[in-house]
Amino acid sequence: MMISGNLLIGGSARRGNNGAFFGLDAATGEPLEGSFGGATIADLEDAAALAWQAFGIYRQTSLHLRSRFLSKIADEIAELGEDLISRCMAETGLPRARVESERARTVGQLRLFAAVVRDGSFLEARIDPGQPDRKPSPRPDLRLMKAPLGPVAVFGASNFPLAFSVAGGDTSSALAAGCPVIVKAHSAHPGTSELVGLAVRRAVQACDLPEGVFSLLYDSGNDISQALVAHPKICAVGFTGSRSGGKAFMKIAAARNQPIPVYAEMSSINPVILFPVALARRGAAIGRAFASSLTLGAGQFCTSPGLILAEQGNGLEEFIRGAKDALSGIPAATMLTDRIRKSYGAAVEQRAGRRGVELLAQGLPASGRAAQSVIFSTDARTFLAGVDLHDEIFGAASLVVRCTDQNELEKVVHSLEGQLTIAIHIDPEDHDSARKMLPALEGLAGRILVNGFGTGVEVAHAMVHGGPYPATSDGRSTSVGSLAIERFLRPICYQDTPDDLLPQVLRDRNPESVRRMENGIFV
Amino acid sequence: MMISGNLLIGGSARRGNNGAFFGLDAATGEPLEGSFGGATIADLEDAAALAWQAFGIYRQTSLHLRSRFLSKIADEIAELGEDLISRCMAETGLPRARVESERARTVGQLRLFAAVVRDGSFLEARIDPGQPDRKPSPRPDLRLMKAPLGPVAVFGASNFPLAFSVAGGDTSSALAAGCPVIVKAHSAHPGTSELVGLAVRRAVQACDLPEGVFSLLYDSGNDISQALVAHPKICAVGFTGSRSGGKAFMKIAAARNQPIPVYAEMSSINPVILFPVALARRGAAIGRAFASSLTLGAGQFCTSPGLILAEQGNGLEEFIRGAKDALSGIPAATMLTDRIRKSYGAAVEQRAGRRGVELLAQGLPASGRAAQSVIFSTDARTFLAGVDLHDEIFGAASLVVRCTDQNELEKVVHSLEGQLTIAIHIDPEDHDSARKMLPALEGLAGRILVNGFGTGVEVAHAMVHGGPYPATSDGRSTSVGSLAIERFLRPICYQDTPDDLLPQVLRDRNPESVRRMENGIFV
């Protein structure tokens, strides 16, 4: 397939005239096919106007049609076949198996939302029938359902070129909710973005939906991204990326005439707490599993285990030995972009030279855009005193914090910021102390794992990929799993509204057979 | 009952030493029993520390106990009997029937949340059982439920001394969610607040809950209110009041180290759209009903009909005649505070003198803290050009906008800000044009009413009392009805967690028999 580098403004493709850039070959650093033109404000205005226009129609589509649309996007992405895989591998440096499994996840995610839409429970339809004879005053007929917020701006993520980019979790949940989407592609994989964007557009056309349901923009800098968040026709934002990027968007969104929700998944060090009995019995094995989770995808996961907490002792030394052994055999892996590789290198160098921090273990040496994995250690006192040690290093770097006792470990736990995940490693004899710590962990993270690591986020109904600020901008939400649809909905109540003016879902005969609450009971 | 004027910091009552104020008799302006001492920062710190301490325990209470607690608060408020009614009438100037019905609403609201808690569906429990044999990788066991955010700051509202104050909608939904509450009482009804606060405290004690579950503070200025929103142990805010107050809290909350959600219900003019056939057939009757809704509670409702939109013609003249006739017989009613009365007077005077605005009708003359109701009119062109005409006048003042045709009326609709309610008056022949307008109305308001007015907000499962900014700070929420509990919850996922470490609701045998989604199906 040819890569054009064009913007997709609804149904039309046009060249952006605001600067240009290329997708780069991860192996060679050379430009790949296609020069991508950055969008101008005029392009953004056109996309926003089309999205707004489409919203009036798209929000009223039947659940059946909207579900079919999501499935069709999945089909179209699957149809891209080897073209998508090879372009994505070239741009990101990710190995084939990872890109293929990410495609499977992306397609599966779209199909999951297709099922969620077909089911209709997400609308939370509720009916309190009128009671005209109630004393002292009659009760009106009240019917509630959740409705889409409006056009959503989605920012592609560098580390998930498929699953959190053009047709990833944010886009699929926003489309499922009934919101048109304008995607700002990540500049690290523009060719991948174009291929997927064209697939979405084919699905829009095949389902005879208004063209403005989907647009794809490139930004040669940050101006268009910021203008997109500030645009009056944009009603919500989905973003996965750096803390500084997320915070900038939060600020823009809060300063608008009409503030809008920003769902930014920003940064997390995903603490792993090793309890004494588990550590004593299985220290080395946990260490090996840790090294494997840490280096997965060159550590470029939001859920990468960046912090290990344990009481000092033989168990911890066994853990370190296990991790060290495993790490020493793990090859350096290519990082997503040159910039990410450089940031990683600089952060690792800084930490290596930091007072109170010791180098524990390293992976195999690296060259070019690849990066050497690394484990540091420090003591709890140093960690508690140093806010810089709480910062995420994006990549395969982790920090072991040695605590003198349980009390000190708890102090460290209470010093932590909001996280996406916290893992605990326990044996049955550890359950009592784990139970005492759980309320604190529940306050800190969106997902609590037992005897595992946070990498490998399952797309499921019960998944939470979110967590208290600053892990995300809004700890009330998840960006992965079917509950992600909640982010793009708001409730509307219809009072005493004649049946023929109600949305289908709230009509007496419930033509789409959606689960509804009636008088407080689900029927 | 004696009124002490003391702060309630958990289980202890103490005098606030940061200035003092009195409840004032609405009829005479004289101080009522009790001098209320404003809280100091130290008082706030104590209340916040107790709330935080209580949170660890309260969040883990069984649904049964939490439900019993809410019912007990309802019982204790009912037990206050005539003491509560007479103090509330004296402080607010509201008539007995209104105060009694508001008490009934408040007690009913607490009982509704008791039922919601007992039912447990609000927890949205979800289980995706593990699939250890899945290829290529096993699926972990995932269990999700919603958990409380943490201590909530609630600000009492002037216009609902019971239903949206100390134990009103915000407090009851936050307590139902599992969040301790710190209430800042509204200074317009401090004695009412103390009585209700003591009732809540008795319920805390009777249910053997940690004292920090509830505290009640007074603020002699705004400093403590602002410090409360900024306090690191406060995790969410519930507020009903002015737009300037709500916006100030939004700003403070967004600027915190850890931003928190603010649920502020701020201002709305609740447009009423009169369609041609209904107007032609029933103009006078709709006008009379309008006058009655406008003057209910001296117009001091968030949902008071402040704007009438219609095409000019005989029907509209009939409507105006009906409204004028009705209004001319309606006595002036006492407003909630002297300050509110003065603001109302000033706003009405300003509007009366505004170019392009005409005085249409008035209620009976007023004196003292009472206020004369008033209806103005203007033409659509003036309304479209004047942002000041979109502002709420808190009280029984409304504005009729005469439109030359349907097209101009639609322009006016599209110029509106976010609203709590929009009412349409239609006859069957109007349905087609109403249907065309509905998508715009859905984008503008949280509740759409047909052939009625927004006043008289039903506390029910299907109620939405919310709406796009600036009607509220967060259009994704409602502050009235059982869905209000959603505001104080966040999802947490437990992965591969042993049964004995899971919350009761997620354990295999589901001891509290809560509705759960398993593999995407509700069971």
UniProtKB/TrEMBL annotation, chains A, B:
One of its GO terms (molecular function) is oxidoreductase activity, acting on the aldehyde or oxo group of donors, NAD or NADP as acceptor. InterPro entries: Ald_DH/histidinol_DH, Ald_DH_C, Ald_DH_N, Aldehyde_DH_dom, Aldehyde_DH_Superfamily, ALDH_KGSADH. Residues 35-467 form the Aldehyde dehydrogenase domain. Keywords: Oxidoreductase. This is Aldehyde dehydrogenase (NADP(+)).
